[in-house]
Amino acid sequence: MRQLVRVAFDLLLEAARRKWFLALFGGITLVLLLLGFSLQLDVVDGAIAGSKLFGSLLFDDIVSANHVMAGLYKVTAYVSFYGGAFFLAIACSDFAPELLAPGRIEHLLSLPISRWQLLFGTYLGVITLAALGVLYGAGGLTLLLGIKTGVWNFKLLLGSGVGWVGFCALYAVMLTSNFFVRSAALSGALGVATLILGVVASFRESIAVAMEAGLGRELFSWAMLPIPRLGTLATVSARLAAAEPLEGEMVTRLLAGCFIFSAALLSVAAWRFERKDF
Amino acid sequence: MTSVLAVSQLVKTYKGLFGPEQRALRGLTLSVPQGAAFGLIGPNGAGKTTFIKVLLGVVRPTSGEVTVLGGDPQDTAVRARIGYLPERMHLPAALRGRDFLRSVSTLKGLTVSDAQLTSLLERVGLRTGDQRVGTFSKGMRQRLGLAAAMLGEPELLILDEPTDGIDPVGRVEVRALLLEEKKRGATILLNSHLLTETERICDRIGVLDHGQLKLEGTLDDVRKAASSWAVRFEGEVSAEAAGFARSDAGWTFEGDVVGLNEAIDAARAAGLRVVSITPRTRDLEAVLTESLRTGP
Description:
The complex is a heterodimer of chains A (278) and B (296). Chain A is α+β, with helices and mostly antiparallel strands. Chain A is built from twelve helices and four strands, in the order ααββββαααααααααα. In chain A, strands 1, 2, 3 and 4 form a four-stranded antiparallel sheet that branches. Chain B has 296 residues and is α/β, with parallel strands linked by helices. Chain B folds into two domains: 217 residues, Rossmann fold, CATH 3.40.50; 54 residues, no CATH class. Chain B has ten helices and 13 strands. In chain B, strand 8 and strand 9 form a beta hairpin. Classes of the chains: A alpha+beta (278), B alpha/beta (296). Chains A and B meet through helix 1 and helix 5 of A and helix 2 and helix 3 of B.
């Protein structure tokens, strides 16, 4: 276990010194600082009596702080889901190819560490990195608005957490692909493709209905079946952040689908890794 | 003497997806005694790196038996006792030298203090352990790789081209370091194209070609296992007629022991008196080229 954690920790250490991630955390910090200094809110009894962003009025009337925050959280959840997934799919695409690089993988495999520990350590490192990004961005915004309005709403963190599960499924595809073809470009492309397919899969029933009945429709339905419904997950994430009502069973099914999808792909990766010569 | 590593009838075949099969190792049998410094030499594509990877469990053999430090290299407990420096080591560029060593020590299950890391870095001649690996020269990377291999004083050191990219002065330092490790009791398996380095460090040599062991023995044996002899006769004589040749070293005979005896008999029959017969020692370059030419 100590070795698995060390592999994940090394990946975080490496990420901390990469420009991509410095830019990500720098960007989040910049947005939070801009909002912190330029957003002025006068909250009276849970309602926003006056609001200014960069000196311009945001609302003419008095509005509920919860209502405004729900809208903002919803937008933030969507942006962090799609933007975060896209950014991380590109930025994390070369971790696995680097790990499997000739001259590095032989050295790692010569150490007293199992192959599955290397695989899951890498996966753990990347999803922890994504979790840190989510925690920093969503947590920072929650803290900022909490201080400004005095209304503490942690739903954005919950919604972003659901979004993070979607990225876990995405990275499982990216990581597994490298045990077949070691390529950062392919890995990143597959990550983005899975994100797009995940949106398509969310509308599979309505798309299938629009298709002509026959083999094509059947193939489409079967092909879309194992793909996690990332578009629906993004909506769930946004609605959770906005504290809108959701069907518990549907959320559970979506999350379970992502976990099963990730576990299945990681099993394939582990199977391939165990048999591969380097 | 106990064998630190022993392989028997080792075969490794790489199966191409569309291309033909490649047989990297063809029934290799070899054992290396404890405390030896074994030099593996051979041309490119001889199977040396594949052999090393099999010993480390990085590559699985197609058939044959492999025993390293009394166990299976797939066993992590066995690998914990091995230090390895790969050919063209790829290091994580964003990490500092010290971070890398700390990471390797954790993965090896060791607890190493900062002072110990500093001492190890100094030992391999790296005074820039706090710099990022990405800024290291090739030689510095090689030194860091060597330090990683030496972490925890392993019983077996497997080094693939350890002095590659290191300047001549650095090579002397690395050689001294490896001799220190040998003195400590570590067994060393060295794969190097620098035959003079191998000659200076190793006491046993194996010549590998086309996945087969062509020649194996102590350094003195393989250098002597020759078919070349220096013969000294009494007085100024001419021994051409008996089959000897004149060279800078005096009279020499090229051939096996039976041929040598026949030539000496002929020389003595012609009235020449033999003062001494010495097997001519060759350098490893000659050993390698001759064994590749003549076969096993």
